[in-house]
Amino acid sequence: MKxxxxxxxxxxxxxWDDIPRGDYYRAALEEQLQPWWSKLYGFHLxxxxxxxxxxxxxxxxxxHQVNVAPEGDKVHVRxxxxxxxxxxxxxxxxxxxxxxxxxxxPHRILREVDRVLIDDGWLVLSGFAPFxxxxxxxxxxxxxxxxxxxxxxxTQTRLIDWLSLLNYEVMFKSRFQVLPWHKQGGRMIxxxxxxxxxxxxxxxxxxxxxxxxxxxxxxxxxQSIAQPVGAxxxxxxxxxx
Length: 241
Known about the structure:
Helices cover 24% and strands 20% of the residues. By secondary structure, the protein is α/β, with parallel strands linked by helices. It has a single domain (16-211), classed as 3-Layer(aba) Sandwich (Rossmann fold), CATH 3.40.50.150. It is globular.
């Protein structure tokens, strides 16, 4: 797996308000997650990162929800996403809203999330897509240093590859918000051309058994060469005569 670790320090937004049209992105993401809140179950939900803490999850069946970030007004536990202050396999679900987009080492965050998640736990993550109108903005010199163009953008396929290596089963994936400057994201074009969406969301579950079990290897049976019946008897009889 190609390393995604970088040394460049990224400017992490403390709120969706720090991102131009951030309220559009947050509303669109909340709409995508709305059908899934009732399907998540358990006792503890971690919302990791400042952007995750501002996502509405009132309809989630998990009542105990903990906001985790290094700092912020809505933070319940001050903690580093690279070193989550929780025991192994103690959390039922984790929400990572654009957390990987502003991570210098996204693999490390995923491994830490995997550590605290219980078996069959839920992982919900979202991010900006590179092959979109937002991705084009990264190629424009006077835009690439502004939000959200200065964030890291990973393809949905790459994110799924990372999850598969950790043995996660993808339950849902989507691309949306094709027109980032439009409040509704261009509903018509988003419906017919979702692959151009500037945002992606993935809902996955942690599995304990391999998703693609290997066939059991059976030892090859040694074939014995059968001797023709009566061959020795016929040979002796011919020589005695």
